[in-house]
Design brief:
With 137 residues, the chain is of the alpha+beta class. The protein is built from 5 helices and 5 strands; from the N terminus they run E-H-H-H-H-H-E-E-E-E.
Length: 137
């Protein structure tokens, strides 16, 4: 990987069914995600997807790019910028910001972004992964 390289794009449709399955798996039944009447009176005006469910697309993108190195050494810092609604199509994008050689291999820093179908940015962040010398992607 070189500075400026783009990671494989991950696109997903977000449905209310996905939100409900995520709620069951995570135990997060916040009414902003589940209750249409409660959500209608919120600042969003309707139900929104769980932020961490949306952020999972970043991990999928990073796993696709770096495999086990991401699972074993990856870390990310993200910021939620705008909500994602059931019915949105999200796109996870990433690009290599820097590559630094260390005693353990290449430390690769990536810029991250998830956008909604409208083009609005939902999540931004950075990730770092160390790829060992004997296991380059």
């Amino acid at each position: 990987m070189n500075v400026g390289d783009r990671l494989s794009v991950v696109e997903k449709d977000v449905t209310q069914e996905h939100v409900e399955r995520y709620a069951r798996a995570s135990g997060d039944f916040n009414p902003i995600h589940m209750d249409p009447e409660f959500a209608a009176s919120s600042q969003f005006g309707t139900r929104i997807a769980h932020g961490m469910m949306v952020a999972a697309a970043i991990s999928e993108m990073m796993t696709s790019a770096f495999g086990g190195a991401w699972l074993n050494t990856g870390r990310m810092k993200i910021r939620f910028r705008s909500p994602v609604y059931p019915g949105d199509r999200i796109t996870a994008l990433g690009r290599v910001k820097s590559v630094r050689e260390t005693g353990c291999g290449s430390e690769i820093a990536c810029a991250l972004e998830i956008t909604r179908g409208s083009g609005e940015v939902a999540i931004t962040g950075d990730a770092i992964v160390t790829v060992s010398k004997d296991r380059r992607p």
